Amino acid sequence: MGLKIHGVNQLLNQLDDILGEQAIKHAVDEAIKDGSLILGMELHRQIKTFSDGTGYSKGYSLEEIHISEPMDRLGNRMIVIHWKGRHSRYRIIHLNEWGTIQNPNPRGKGKIAKAMKLAQREYGRVVRESLRRYIK
Question: What are the tens digits of pLDDT across the range 57-78?
Fold first, then answer.
């Protein structure tokens, strides 16, 4: 999710002076872990709507949702939510989200985008609350 917040660099510099770089990194890691669980749960709910466990859909897309550990990427701390497992569902998630020429409107179309939209407000609240625990 992309958000633009102004004055963050100044705030982070002030917090870095007060708490130290390692404490800030730990606080941010815990906050994004908490937030990723919110998004992961909503993603699970959305995918479950078209993954009923019968016939073609056996629920492998639900089983293979994977939330990574915090990492540095392009100068930002982030967590990646992706599909990882023995059934290689990552191969068809894109097709479920966007459709194909033969099947332009699959049952799972737009579910990832919907999960991100529905979780956005709660994600922000959880991240704020998590950061407040460390910055008192």
Answer: 578 888 899 999 999 998 889 9
Q: How far is CA 29 from the centre of its chain?
A: 13
Task: Enter the tokens of residue 11.
Answer: 């705030």
- How many helices (DSSP H) and strands (DSSP E) are in the chain? 5, 4
* Domain locations along the chain: 9-134
Largest Cα–Cα distance in the chain?
A: 58
Instruction: Report residue 121: phi and psi, to 5°.
Output: -65, -45
- Residue 12 carries which side chain, given as an amino acid letter? L
* Cα of 134 vs its chain's centroid, Å: 22
52: its two tokens? 């009923």
Q: What is the pTM of this model?
A: 0.78
